[in-house]
Amino acid sequence: MSKVTIKDIAQRAGVSKTAVSFALNYPGRISKKTYEKIMAIVEELGYVPNPFARTLTTKRLGAIGLLLPQKIGDIFGNPHMAQIISGIGEECERREFSLAILPLIRGKIIEAARKSYVDALITIGVGPDHEVVDLLKKNHIPFVTIDGEESENTINIGIDHKNAAKEIMLHVLQQGHRDIAILALEADTKPIESTHTSIVLQRRFQGFQEALEEFSISLAEPSVQILNCKSSMQAGHESVQILLSNAKRPTAIVAMSDIAAIGALVAIKENGLRVPGDIAVAGFDDIPESSLVSPALTTIFQPGRQKGTEAARMVLNMLDGAQGTHIKLPYKLIVRESTLRA
After folding, report:
1. Which of 97, 92, 104, 93 shows the shortest CA–CA distance to 67?
2. Which of the residues 140, 214, 240, 250 could staple to 181 if both were Cys, CB 3.0 to 4.6 A apart?
3. 214-263 pLDDT tens trace
């Protein structure tokens, strides 16, 4: 049996091939009655559009890409990232676009960008000096960053990570803690020839430093331990085992993700210690699980799903010729039992 073509559908419906093309790509250009008639025949004949023919007609692929900053397994192990991706996907579905998940290639975002076959891109955690930004600009590919940096080169959707980090560290310090361990994000968005990692990591460390300085403490002091930690329960659990093997045990742990903080909380209790009596624990994200664990987790709320929705909406509007604008979303310190001393 030969493959069904637009010509076959047009003949069966008694309309032109242009009308069929409009039904498949621009339904608003034909009457509802004609659209329904054509689509009923499309369904009956089992027609599958040729993506390359569609591209010639619409000058678009009908897809946006999400460049992942970490290994795909690590990303989907973090509930906050899952919320962001869900928000992007929901907006793509509403606008009838596909979403392509683009993992690192040979450990690099820029390699994934070079091999992408999409109309527009969303990146996570990259700053205006990142090599991928230059690539996208040169090729006139619309793109938006999530948790990047507001600049002339990048349209960004995110929260004020520096002040959010400052608030949660100040809260921990105000509880009397001076021996503090930080479970830092392990990011893969490092630009070539840069001493920094992701923008999120930079800004949160700046916030931590400002809070510590108010108590005459520095990030470089021995009383502040910093461990790189993936955003997973296992990584948080393993980090606590390392901390408890050190001669000086921290009295508080501030994790840059809730899921790592929950892993830390579990490990502390497995070692016969109390939270927050022996070690206080704070996280970041306010994922649903943070209020369900015992004790409930002190954290920073940030709207993950809304980040994704706003980023997808913005980049799709830019694809239609709109001017991109930065969006700063709200955050909030949520104080729960995991840091409150009796």
Report:
1. 104
2. 250
3. 999 999 999 999 999 999 999 999 999 999 998 789 999 999 999 999 99
